[in-house]
Amino acid sequence: MKQEEYTEVICKGFCSFYKEGKEELLCGTYRFLRDNFTPEEMAEVPEGIEPDFSEDAWLRDSICSRCDFLTDGCDYREGNPSPPCGGYVVAEFLRKKRV
After folding, report:
1. Boundaries of domain holding 57
2. pLDDT tens across 32-87, in order?
3. Which residues, 6+ apart, have CB-to-CB distance to 35 below 8 Å?
4. What is the pTM of this model?
5. What is the DSSP string of 59-94?
6. Based on the structure, what is the number of domains in the chain?
């Protein structure tokens, strides 16, 4: 189940796939961010940033490979002209900040 303070930043702030009322659906990056970062840490992510994909291999192996949406078809991972999920953007930014 989603938590409002995380949903505000991850989903509403960065995810083009977000739909109100789908709070039971969690992507892998949402789970990762919820389990590893506070809402205050995530609030440091600037609005409007775009991923540069510099952490893609780490994100794929550490997070995306366990994502429930991967089994149903992740447009980004399948090479379709689609942006990654909003959690990807947030996780990439925070990963680069920590490294």
Report:
1. 4-98
2. 999 999 988 988 899 999 999 999 999 999 999 888 887 777 888 888 888 999 99
3. none
4. 0.88
5. HHHHTGGG-HHHHH--TTTTT-S-PPPHHHHHHHHH
6. 1
